[in-house]
Specification:
- There is one protein chain.
- With 138 residues, the protein is mainly α.
- It has a single domain (6-137), classed as Up-down Bundle (Four Helix Bundle (Hemerythrin (Met), subunit A)), CATH 1.20.120.
- The protein has helices spanning 6-27, 32-60, 65-86, 92-123, 125-137.
- Helix 1 (6-27) runs antiparallel to helix 2 and helix 3 runs antiparallel to helix 4 (92-123).
- The longest helix is centred in the last third of the chain and has 32 residues, at 92-123.
- The protein is elongated, with a radius of gyration of 17 Å.
- The mean pLDDT is 88.
- Bound molecules: fe (ii) ion (2 copies).
Length: 138
């Protein structure tokens, strides 16, 4: 799932770890509170990470920044919807659905959408130059 941009890959790695923690809570049949806390952590990390990506898009002058930011809003809404629905869950099988839905919405965002800016980033060396210059002065 690498986009070939070290800071973002590190972000995605942590993000996947949090999703795995959430899934583990379901598989190990932890209490609802524990599962809920982990799902909340996934949501908070997604919001933080999306904001970070959108900041980079500005710096790169990424032409599809607005479209991508809208996709982020859709993902956050989907996670909120899953969380809302999960409040009514009583059975393990229902949590299994939430697990699959969360994985699907978040992982497919990285695979489908993030890969598009990765492609843009790598095809425009002046963009990566802009990022490296920024790093040096930061
Ligand atoms: Fe991302
Ligand atoms: Fe993204």
């Amino acid at each position: 799932m690498s986009v070939g941009i070290p800071d973002i890959d590190a972000d995605h790695k942590r993000f996947i770890c949090l999703i795995n923690d959430f899934i583990r809570a379901i598989v190990e049949r932890m209490g609802l509170l524990e599962i809920g806390i982990r799902l909340q952590l996934v949501l908070e990390d997604a919001e933080r990470h999306f904001a970070q990506e959108e900041k980079l898009f500005k710096k790169w002058q990424y032409p599809h920044a607005l479209r991508h930011a809208n996709k982020h809003r859709e993902v956050i809404k989907a996670v909120h919807d899953i969380m809302e629905e999960a409040k009514t869950y009583n059975f393990d099988s229902e949590w299994k659905n939430a697990e699959l839905a969360i994985k699907d919405v978040l992982v497919s965002h990285v695979m489908d959408e993030d890969m598009k800016y990765a492609d843009f980033f790598h095809r425009h060396p002046e963009v990566s130059g802009r990022v490296h210059r920024h790093r040096k002065t930061a």
